[in-house]
Amino acid sequence: MFTFFKKSNEKKDENDVGGGGTGTPGGSGVSGGSGGIVPPPALVIGGALTDQGTLRHSATSEIAIPTRITRERRATIGGDVPHPQSLLYPLTPTSNNIASLSPSMFASYKTQAEPQVPTGYIDEYYERDVEGNKYLEKMWMNVVMPATQNLARLELKYIVRRGIPDSKRTRVWKLISGYEDFKRSLDYEYVSGAITGEGAPKKFRNIPSFGGIVSPSDHFLNDQGIDHVKRILTVLALRCPEVEYCPSIPDILQMLLLFLSDVEAYTVLNLLIQQSKTNIKFRYLNITNRDCISFSLTFDTLFEMTVPKLYKHMIGLGITSSKVFTEEWFSRMFVSHLPFQTVLRVFDCFLCEGYKALYRVGLGLLKLHKNVLMSKATTAEQFCSMLKHLNLQMFDVDKLMNRAFRIRLQRNTVQNIDEMQTPKLTHIAEPQMPIYYRPKITTPSDILHNDDYEIVWTWLPHRFCICDPKVVYNSNRDGRSLRNMLERVKGEYPMLILIKTTNGDVFGCFTDDELESKFGFGSSNTFVFVMKPHAHVYRATNKNELYLKVCPSVDLSSFSMWIGASELGDRALCIDSELNGTTAPSDTYGNPALTDDQSFKFKSTVLEVISLV
């Protein structure tokens, strides 16, 4: 049986945000904003199409009719046709009613659905909603997929809100994200080649997180999927250096990999980033810290407009902004805040409709929990903990989606509120995120392996993270003396000095100052580090400014060099004229001895200087 909304004279309740026209309760009406799981602006209640594409009222039924139906299509399906508005309630498809759900979406009724298998990397702990998937499979059985992304967003929007079965997600996600359109473009091979080409990284030590959380266990990914997460995040950081802070990227990628291949997931993620830069209407990602804060502030204003009583109660408890609990909702796409099957339903709508779906779901949660929070939460701590607990129990995803998509939310209203936040963001600085760069190694090192460079590069000052290494001095090749080293590296800075000892220890220092005998004690950016047996970096503590010094002998025939010092005269690293030396704890860097040798002395087997170019 179908159950349809009837026309209502209800007063506009507090869930209406922005202007509207006439329409269903919580709907968008004829000229209003886009509302819940309801007809788009071209649809009304209580009418059917005439031959001129306008509307006529039906005496027998009150059904939403799309105005886009052609005369030929209308002739094949009859006059009064239900729209996916009816999908708000349980549906049992039959040969008589399946085609009527949306004529531009459904083909003639078939008794068997074509089997489709997701291509992602789901592990054995993923719990499928068997009954829910059966119901959704029947609902989607005869859906004809539109040819383009724009048509898919328009024609599939209401049925996507109702849910996508696991077997259909692969195809639907690719379609509504624009993957299928992009695959036909000339740029596809370039983008996909970043994952499949010879230059794709094979091993990973430092995984760029873009300020988010890389937690594959929250997403039921298998080992292969986890490996793809590392690879794709690494490639994305290399290919999109302008995107430094975007905390939702890791969770979005990990969800995509549940139902897409690595190439598909990487391509879709690229498309979401590009569309976020160029398409305000379907913006997906906040790619700066200011964008993220503006997003939370806009939601706070929408919260006050949509659920004013609960908002006032929250303020009365001493919570000055909903940003306290919503910041992580949006940065993690509700992962770990809602049951995972609920998260997937939210993500379906997010891919189809953009950022506005997140606003609606957040507001829907607050409206659903309004009575409990107002009656039982008497302190700020109770409010936040109770809200978190209620969200984790939100297994009735249909109830949430119905409530969320009944909220009228016009894009113009949201954009106006966004613009109001601009004065509040002038003092917001971008966080100092590590710049991820995989250096191009043209001259091999006798000390560092290729993977070691990734570790060292995370220690460098940001402005040097995009430099590549060049071995400018090797003691086995260029002569084993400090004098030779200083001559070879003249004018070469910034640089790394690496020492490998006879007992296998590897340690050294970084400086962005030229190595020469001069007044002063080097740069505060200088640091010392250990690579083996355990990688660790020791930076300046500001206890003194004795960073680095090159000391010539009286007759200038030889040199020594030291890095860091303590009150007792110990040096973090001291190198003599023959490239041996000592190491000890220092106040400058707060380091222990850089070698395990109890004598604090070392003999080098090889010393290298690597310039950053």
Beta-strand proportion: 5-15%
| Shape call | elongated
> How are the strands of the largest sheet arranged?
5-15-6-7-8-9
Regions with pLDDT < 50 over 5+ consecutive residues?
Answer: 1-16, 19-117
Number of helices: 22
Give a quick set of tags describing it:
six-stranded antiparallel beta sheet; 613 residues; 37% helix; 22 helices; five-stranded antiparallel beta sheet; elongated
Characterization of the model:
It is a single chain. The chain contains 22 helices and 15 strands. The chain starts with 15 loop residues before the first strand and ends with a strand. The chain has 613 residues and is α+β, with helices and mostly antiparallel strands. It is elongated and about 90 Å long. A 6-stranded antiparallel β-sheet has the order 5-15-6-7-8-9. The N terminus is likely disordered. The longest helix has 18 residues. Helix content is 37%, strand content 11%. A hairpin with a 3-residue loop joins strand 8 and strand 9. Among the domains are: 100 residues; 137 residues, Cyclin A, domain 1 (Orthogonal Bundle); 163 residues, no CATH class.
